[in-house]
Design goal:
This protein is mainly alpha-helical. The chain has one domain. Helix content is 79%, strand content 0%. It has 14 helices and no strands. Helix 1 packs across helix 2.
């Protein structure tokens, strides 16, 4: 456990002292600030009275998907690839730390940084609450969706980083794998059987976040995030183990 915590602390330190990490944070907050401006504009429009919660914008707008698609690969691209490039992966693999512990420590660090990025956005509903009523149910479920999607794509990014020595290649591989998830609705439109259409619809991330932003929490979608996260973490462990015996 001490080795796990030591690696977790090292990864967190790397995030919070890295210029790239702070550049990512700046980009993230700038884009989310645009979402907040859209929310304020929505509330300022008299025609919006009685419509859906404005925080749907925060979790389903173009700005949300831009940050998800570009920020998660940037968070994960160095996690294993930098270890391979610098030659420190071999040192980690011969330490008392198991491959599973190493992967989980890096994943936990990425998740903590992901939560750190989203933490300032909690101020948005708090600010709005001073001037208008806020339905905290959809806001809470929206953040639950953010955590679920974030964990899934961070696991995908960790896997992408496990077989690349170059961070750019790792980010590109992660981006490509993420695009496959977003193409699911298109695959569903090509399916002819009702069962296949239901399966593809079950994995439609856009509809997932629409429901979460409206306060609809479907446990099947949470299971989808958890199982996909577990799958890619398992694949990452296997990729690291393969490197150990190579």
């Amino acid at each position: 456990m001490s080795s796990f915590l030591a690696l977790l602390q090292r990864e967190l330190r790397a995030y919070f002292v890295s210029p790239l990490a702070w550049a990512v944070s700046t980009f993230f907050l700038f884009v989310q600030g645009l979402s907040f401006l859209m929310i304020v504009s929505f509330l300022s429009d008299p025609r919006a009275a009685g419509e859906v919660t404005p925080f749907v914008i925060l979790f389903t707008s173009f700005f949300f998907w831009i940050t998800l698609i570009f920020v998660t690969p940037m968070i994960t691209m160095r996690l294993v690839s930098e270890e391979r490039r610098s030659g420190t992966l071999e040192i980690l693999l011969t330490s008392p730390l198991s491959e599973t512990q190493m992967v989980l420590a890096k994943f936990c660090a990425a998740m903590i940084f992901w939560c750190f990025l989203w933490l300032p956005t909690v101020l948005y509903p708090l600010i709005i609450e001073r001037y208008s009523d806020v339905d905290w149910g959809p806001v809470s479920s929206g953040y639950l969706g953010v955590l679920g999607l974030g964990s899934m794509f961070l696991a995908v990014g960790l896997f992408g980083s496990s077989f690349a020595k170059n961070q750019i290649v790792a980010a590109a591989a992660t981006f490509a794998m993420m695009m496959v998830f977003f193409l699911v609705p298109w695959f569903g439109s090509l399916a002819t059987g009702e069962t296949l259409q239901l399966v593809f619809g079950y994995a439609d991330l856009l509809s997932h976040m629409e429901d979460f932003s409206k306060g609809i929490v479907d446990s099947r979608r949470l299971v989808y995030y958890l199982t996909t996260t577990a799958l890619f973490l398992f694949l990452t462990v296997r990729a690291v183990e393969a490197k150990k015996w190579r």
